[in-house]
Structures are given as C-alpha cells and as structure tokens.
Amino acid sequence: MHAADKLTEIKERGYMIVAVRNDSPRFGSINPENNEITGFDVDITNAIAEQILGENAKVEFVPVAQAGRIASVTTDRVDMVAATLSITNDRLREVDFSNVYIRVGQSLIVPQDSKVNDVNDLQDATVCAPLGSTPEMVIRNRLPKAQVLALNGDSEGLMAIKAGRCDAYSTGFLSLMDLAKADPSVRLAGKPFTYETFGLAFKKGDDSLREAVDAALTGIDKNGKYDDAYRKWIAETLPADREEWLGLPPTEAAERYAASLTSK
Predict the structure, then answer these.
(1) Out of 99, 101, 143, 183, which residue is the most buried by the measure of CB atoms under 10 Å away?
(2) Rounded Cα distance, 139 and 23, in Å
(3) Average pLDDT over residues 9-23
(4) Can you tell me whether residue 244 is helix, strand or coil?
C-alpha cells in the first residue's frame, strides 16, 4: 500500500488504528471499571474518526510506552499516534505532525520540604524525567551538570522522589499537577518553563491522512466536541490563548518550542 493511499486503506478497513498512552490520567489511562483506555487523546481521536469515517466510527487503540511512540507509526504498527507527543524540529525529521491540538508546558515536582523553587535551582542536582521524552531532552540540555535519571513514566518518577533517588521529577505540567494533587508529600515547583504543544503523528508521506486529520480538527473545533473534551479532561475553563495555538502549523510550533529552550 503506497503512503498516498493511507486514507483509502483506513476507509476500506473501516476503522483507524491509533497509538495512545495508558499511563497518563488526563490523556490516556485504563479505566478500572471496564479495562478500556480513556482520556483526552482518546476522546479527540474518536471525534476525529467520526469526522473521517462517519457516525459510530471505530478506533482500535494500541497502548505504547513513551519511548516507543514514534516507532509505532514509522513501522506501520498504527496509522497515527495520539499519545502526548510534543512537536519538535528533531521529531519533524522522523514523522509528520498534524496541526497543534493542545498546548502544554514542562515543569517540576519536588518533595514538600525541598528548597527547589525553579528549574535553575537544579544545576548540580539529580533530576528524573520520562525515558525518550522531550522533558528528558530539555533537562539534559538545560542542566548539563545535573545527573539525569530516565524512568518509565510518571508513577516511577513519583516513587523515585519519595525514595530519595532524585531531587525533582520533570515532565508535562498537567501530569505533575495530578501527581501533586494525589500525593501531598510532593509539590509543584515554579511555572512551566517551555512552550510545548502536542500534535498527532503520522508516518512520513501519509499526506492524505494528515490532511484529513487537520480538516477533522477544524471540524471538531466548530462542532464543540473539542471544547467538550477539553472541559472534561483538562480544565473547565477554556484557556484565554486558545486561538493562538489551536490549529497552529507544526513547523511554527516547533520553532516556538526551540525558542523557549533558551529562555531563562
């Protein structure tokens, strides 16, 4: 099947195959009541599938680890990745991205009694971050003297802090907010320090699918399903800068992210 026919392939198959996380409470996690993966990325994907395949469209969700997200689509295991994948210039050389579907940012959690209040307080510290993620890359670049421990997800990061293995755990602000809310022994330290956006990822050359997904994102913005998912999983109040980033082209999003890495 040629790359240009990816959209036709999906329509003939009758459903989409999409990689998602199953360890991120807001974006993709297992609902213990029915053992299904639920979250913002799941709801957005289902709404997109309805735009492309019609009402009652089906999606097969494939759980992936953070480090395996890009490989899942470049090896044709899935049609698309919807798994908290940040848009960066490096990743644009590996995969194609949709327009931006959410803006996030990187921050820190630390023990309650920590004296750390900002990323710049960690120059000689031990910092944990998710393996194969942009937060890991950012910490390595921004804190060259720090020792970085790459772990498999948020639960390991929280356990590492509580066990004293690291001075801080760094990943997306929303995930950290949930961790701090669930465990009073840790707290957020400082505001987000990157301009980070998520996109849906495709194998290079799958232009027909990418274009259809971008059109679908516009459609779910207009019909209200995007706002419904945002209020359900992210925050009841829509962000004031929503029009600035929703639908932002991936090349521009990557440049804004790169610029934020040098900000102090």
Answers:
(1) 101
(2) 22
(3) 96
(4) helix
CATH code reported for the domain at 106-188: 3.40.190.10
Length reported for the chain: 264
For residue 207, give both structure tokens: 């232009």
Q: Which residues contact 178 (CB under 8 A, 6 or more apart)?
A: 25, 26
Q: Where are the domains of the chain?
A: 3-103+195-261, 106-188
Contact between residue 187 and residue 112 where contact means Cβ atoms under 8 Å apart: yes
Backbone φ and ψ of 38, nearest 5°: -130, 160
What are the structure tokens assigned to 258, written together?
């790169």
What span, in angstroms and rounded, lies between the C-alpha atoms of 143 and 199? 26
Residue position matching structure tokens 């090349």: 251
pTM (2 d.p.): 0.81
| Alpha helix stretches (DSSP H) within 143-200 | 154-162, 173-182
Question: pLDDT by residue (tens digit) across 45-61?
Answer: 999 999 999 998 999 99
Q: Do domains 3-103+195-261 and 106-188 have the same CATH topology?
A: yes
Alpha helical stretches, state H, 14-153: 40-53, 69-74, 89-92, 134-142
Domain 3-103+195-261 has CATH 3.30.70.3090: no
